[in-house]
Amino acid sequence: MSMMEKTLTIKKATREAFGDEIVELGKKNKNIYVIDVDIAKSCKTVNFIKQLPDQHINVGIAEQNAAGLAAGLATTGKIPFVSTYAVFGSLRMAEQVRQEICYPNLNVKIACSHGGLTPANDGGSHQAVEDMGVLRSFPNMTVIMGADYYSTRKLVEQAAKIYGPVYLRFTRDKVPVLYDENEEFIIGKAKKIKEGKDIAIIANGDTVHLALETAKQLKKEGISVKLLDMHTIKPLDREAVVDCLKIGKIITIEDHNILNGLGSAVCEVVAEEGKGIVRRIGVQDQFGQSAPYEKLLELNGITIENILKTAKEMLK
Amino acid sequence: MKNISIEELKEKAIEMRRTALTMIHEAQSGHPGGSLSAADIMTALYFKEMNIDPNNPTWEDRDRFVLSKGHVCPIQYSALALRGYVPYETIYTLRKYGSPFQGHPDMKKCPGIDISTGSLGQGLSCGVGMAIGGKRDSKDYRVFALIGDGECQEGQIWEAAQTAVKYQLDNLVIFVDNNRLQIDGFCDEIMPLQDIEKKFDAFGFETKKIDGHSMEEIVETLDEIRVAKNGKPKCIVCETVKGKGVSFMEDVVEWHGVAPNDEEYKKALEEITGGLQ
Questions:
Q1: Is B130 on the interface with A (CB under 8 A)?
Q2: Considering only alpha carbons, which residue of chain A is nearest residue B107?
Q3: Which of B93, B214, B233, B275 is the most buried (most CB within 10 A)?
Q4: Do B123 and A78 touch (CB under 8 A)?
Q5: Angle at A54 between CA A48 and CA A60, to 5 degrees
Q6: Closest CA of chain B from A83, distance in Å
Q7: Given a cut of 90, is residue A5 above it in pLDDT?
Q8: Which domains are assigned to chain B?
Q9: What is the pLDDT of residue B155?
Q10: Residues 6+ apart with CB under 8 A from A190
Q11: Do A68 and B163 touch (CB under 8 A)?
C-alpha cells in the first residue's frame, strides 16, 4: 500500500525514535555518548542510561557546560549527543555551539526534543519556533527534523555516521507514522513522497502528514501535487527545490517561524533562480502559549484547510 | 616531564616574554598584559611539566592544554614556536591573513592547540570533557587549563567546576591567572570575585595559592600535584601581576589589549632581558 492510500492512524512522538535509536547506536559503537541535562526522562534517554552507563554523562541543569564538555569529549574521539529541549539546545547554548562546536567543526550532535509548538501545554517559553533558523546560520552545522518515527530513527543513525555538528529536532507530541520501517533516508536529500504537476508542497517535521492529507484532498478535486519531505533544511537539497520550479508554484509548511526556517531556505533558492513563487505556511512570527497542539497550529494557519485555501489561490 | 633546572626555566621565561611582545609589536595588535602575567606558569608547563611531542601534536596520549582566556594566546604561541611546533618565524604572522596564529586560538589552523577558545568562560567545560574522555579510556594523560580571574565572573566556569568534582577528575589541573585586572578596570571594582581559592575549595577541589611569578613555587606545586591521584580535581590560584616584567605595563589596565609602539617595545625588551627581579 502506498503512503498516499495509507490511513495515518498510528502515532508516535519522534523523541521516542531518538531514545530507541541511540541505544542501538551506542551498543554498536562505544564512542557514542549521551550528555543529559537533567531531562533524560522527557528526552527519552533513560534506556541508554540503564544499558550504557559508561557512555553517559549527566551535567545537571547546565546546558552551556554540556555543549563545551561535548566539544572537549569530541576531541578525544567520542561522538557525543547532547540531549535537551530545542529551546535550550538552540538558544541557551547557542554561543557555545557556535564557538566550541561549529567553529572548530567538532563531531558533536545536538539532539533536541520539544521542537516547534509540540510542547503545547508548556506554553510559549518552551516552544522553540526559531531554533532551526538560529542553527542553520552557523557554518559547519547540519539541521534536520524527521517527519515521523521511522524516518527520525534513520536520520539519527545517519547523523552518527557523518562527521561534524548536527542539530536534530524531535517532537514532544505524537505524530502519525508515515513511512515503512525499511525506508531509507539520506541527509541533505529530500524525500519525494509524491510526484505531481500542478503545485509543489515542501514540508518538514510534524507538518509533513498535514501536507500528505492535503494532497489527498486536492487529488479528489483533480489537482495533482508534488510533495517533498525536506527533513534536512541545511544543507538544503537545492536540486529538489529547483526541480519544483518546473511547476513554478511552491507552498512550504513548517512548525517553525516562517522567518529563517524551511520557507526562507526555499525562498533563497527560488529568488536566486529568479522564477517561481512561494507561499510560506508556518508560525507567524509570534510566540506560542499554553493550548492544545492543534489549537496552536490553527492559530498560525498550519492546517489542512489553510493549505488547501493557499493552493487554490495560487492556482487561480 | 622533562629534566630542566629552575635557572633554565627562568631563562626560558625571558624568551617567552620577549617572543610574545615581539609578535604583538609586529602585529600592532594583541593582548600584552595577560600574556605577561601568565608567562611563568606557561613556561613551566610547556618546558617541563607537560607530556607533549611537538613532532606529533595530535598524539592521543599527550597532556592537553586549554587556554580558556584565549586572548592571551601570544604567550601560548610563544611556547609553541619555541618548542618547535611551528617555525620560529611564524611569530611575525600573528593576526595576519593565513597565519596559524589567529587573534584567538584556532585548533584547525595551529598545531598544538587542543581546543579553539576566545569566548570567555567556555574553555573549562572543554577541559572537563577531555578529562572525562581520558578517564573513560583509562589513559594517563592530564588536562591543564588556564583561566582568568575576570573570566570567573562567567557562570559557566562554575558549571564546569561542579562537573569536574562530580566525575572525580584528578587528571584536571586548573591554573587561575589571578592578575586582578579586567578590561574595564580592577576586578574588585567591576565585579568582585571574593576569594577564588575558597570558592574552588567549596566546590570540592584540592586548592593551593601560590606566587604565579615564582618559578620555584610553580615547579614545587607541579611536583606535588603529579603524585596526588586522589579523585579530586586541582585548582592552583596564581597570584600574578598583569604586565609582569615590564615596569610601565605592570598593573596598568590600559595594557590589557594594546600593542607597544617602537619606543615602548624597545624599552620593554631591555627590561625583560634582565629577567624578573
A1: yes
A2: A104
A3: B233
A4: no
A5: 70
A6: 16
A7: no
A8: 6-273 (3.40.50.970)
A9: 98
A10: A202, A228, A229, A230, A231, A232, A237, A240
A11: no
Q: Using an 8 Å Cβ cutoff, are A249 and A314 in contact?
A: yes
| DSSP 8-state secondary structure symbol assigned to residue A175 | E
With the C-alpha atoms ordered B111, B113, B114, B118, is the resulting torsion angle positive or negative? negative
Write down the residue that cell numbers 567553529 correspond to.
A103
Contact between B268 and B10 (Cβ < 8 Å): no
Question: Is A272 annotated in the active site?
Answer: no
Maximum alpha-carbon separation in chain A: 61
Asked if A65 and B128 come within 8 Å (Cβ–Cβ), the reply is yes
Write the pLDDT tens digit of every residue in A242-256.
999 999 999 999 999
B259 touches chain A (CB under 8 A): no
Tell me, yes or no, if B233 comes closer than 8 A to chain A by beta carbon.
no
Residue contact A100–B130, C-beta within 8 A: no
User: Residue A270: pLDDT band by 50, 70, 90 thresholds?
Assistant: very high
Q: Tell if the CB–CB gap between B160 and A65 is shorter than 8 Å.
A: yes
For residues A283 and A306, what is the distance between their CA atoms, to the nearest angstrom? 13
Give start and end residues of each alpha helix (H) in chain A: 14-28, 40-43, 46-51, 63-74, 86-87, 94-96, 131-136, 149-161, 208-220, 238-244, 262-273, 293-299, 304-315
User: What single DSSP character describes residue A183?
Assistant: -
Q: Is the N-terminal amide bond of B260 cis, ω within 30° of 0?
A: no
Distance between start and end Cα atoms, chain B: 27
- C-alpha distances (whole Å) from B215 to each of A184, B6, B10, B186, B274 are 61, 7, 7, 25, 15
Distance from C-alpha of B73 to C-alpha of A6, rounded to nearest angstrom: 61
The tens digit of pLDDT for each residue in A188-245 reads: 999 999 999 999 999 999 999 999 999 999 999 999 999 999 999 999 999 999 999 9
Of the partner residues A65, A71, A78, the one whose CB lies closest to the CB of residue B159: A65
| Residue pointed to by grid coordinates 517553525 | A256
From A5, A21, A63, A183, active-site residue = A63
Among the partner-chain residues B114, B132, B159, the one whose CB lies closest to the CB of A73 is B132
The whole-angstrom distance between A281's CA and the closest CA on chain B is 37
Domains and CATH numbers, chain A: 11-176 (3.40.50.970), 191-315 (3.40.50.920)
Which pLDDT tens digit goes with each residue over B165-220?
A: 999 999 999 999 999 999 999 999 999 999 999 999 999 999 999 999 999 999 99
Count of CA atoms in the C-beta half-sphere (13 A) of B245: 31
Does B116 contact A104 at a Cβ distance shorter than 8 Å?
Answer: yes
Q: Does any CB of chain A come closer than 8 Å to the CB of residue B138?
A: no
Residue whose C-alpha is closest to residue B15's, from B33, B40, B48: B40
Mutation target to probe the A interface, by most A beta carbons within 10 A, among B64, B124, B125 is: B125
Mean of pLDDT values over A242-271: 98
Task: Give pLDDT, residue B141.
Answer: 97
